[in-house]
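Q: what sequence does this backbone want?
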């Protein structure tokens, strides 16, 4: 019995010792790893952050810069590009960018890509995904280091409305099959557009929308929402925040995936009931964003229209839809 008690004590001490040793190794390893994984101090040793001191009293007073749900509205003068870049560039992010160049719209692709290379997410990894029924007409454009272009063939159509309606489905399936493995953020843009000035990391967010330039001065009663209750895109007259442009959808890849999946489903329900929403995917987008608020809102600087005169609130035009003859580029008007 005495021998048995000594053995039990020995085993107990041995077990306690092993646990203490394992605990020491564990905490030593992870303490070292934590210190190694925090790059701020090391980064600041070699890179001084020099930027104008921010103020809580001085700034834009001619425009609203925050939504009622506390999402930033991005205007010129509301962010410091040097500071924003210093925050985001060390993260080594990849930005997916989708455009549809179907039918004669492929003619806009060169200007889109060449101006994007000058102004869009400069210094970041960018992957362009060009959806087209004319892959042989995709122009050769010199891309800077870290930027790539993929051409994905899609069917054409005799109706531009059908092309518009299929965008959500195609983006959803491409995120599933490819983009989810290749990018952190995604922007879905219209190809008949050009960049004119910086579009950078200030636009990044979980779910990003842009205010339509034709309606930012209007009240909700004037917005061209889908007003028929039978449609899945229906928004009543007494509801609505802003009118968002369908020419830009952005955010984390997984959040944009959810948006496209939901909007695709609502398209299909409407189609089954022989309903086509007033402005196709833009109508469904506005319905989705009404009940799933964007975490960041871009001002009309990020989606201007070339036929529209510049207003005093818009200090910089960053991205705009070009003037075009719809009879020439659309299969139907």
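A:
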């Amino acid at each position: 019995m005495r021998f048995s008690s000594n053995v039990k004590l020995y085993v107990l001490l041995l077990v306690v010792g092993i646990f203490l040793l394992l605990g020491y190794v564990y905490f030593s390893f992870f303490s070292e790893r934590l210190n190694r994984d925090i790059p701020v101090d090391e980064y600041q040793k070699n890179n001084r952050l020099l930027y104008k001191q921010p103020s809580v009293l001085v700034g834009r007073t001619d425009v609203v810069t925050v939504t009622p749900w506390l999402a930033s509205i991005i205007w010129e003068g509301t962010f410091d590009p040097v500071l924003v870049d210093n925050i985001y560039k060390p993260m080594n992010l990849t930005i997916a960018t989708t455009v549809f160049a179907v039918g004669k719209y492929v003619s806009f692709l060169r200007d889109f890509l060449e101006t994007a290379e000058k102004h869009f997410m400069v210094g970041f990894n960018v992957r362009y995904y060009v959806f087209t029924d004319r892959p042989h007409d995709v122009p050769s454009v010199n891309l800077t280091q870290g930027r790539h272009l993929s051409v994905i063939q899609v069917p054409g159509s005799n109706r531009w409305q059908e092309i518009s309606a299929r965008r959500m489905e195609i983006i959803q399936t491409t995120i599933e099959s490819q983009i989810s493995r290749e990018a952190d953020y995604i922007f879905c843009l219209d190809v008949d557009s050009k960049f004119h000035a910086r579009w950078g990391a200030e636009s990044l967010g979980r779910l990003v929308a842009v205010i339509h330039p034709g309606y930012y001065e209007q009240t909700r009663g004037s917005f061209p929402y889908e007003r028929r209750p039978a449609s899945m895109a229906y928004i009543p007259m007494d509801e609505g925040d802003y009118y968002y442009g369908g020419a830009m959808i952005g955010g984390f890849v997984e959040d944009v995936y959810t948006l496209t999946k939901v909007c695709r489903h609502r398209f299909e329900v409407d189609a089954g009931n022989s309903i086509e929403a007033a402005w196709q995917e833009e109508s469904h987008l506005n319905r989705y964003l009404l009940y799933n608020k964007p975490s960041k809102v871009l001002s009309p600087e990020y989606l201007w229209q070339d036929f529209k005169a510049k207003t005093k609130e818009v200090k910089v035009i960053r991205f705009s839809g070009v003037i075009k003859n719809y009879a020439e580029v659309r299969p139907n008007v």
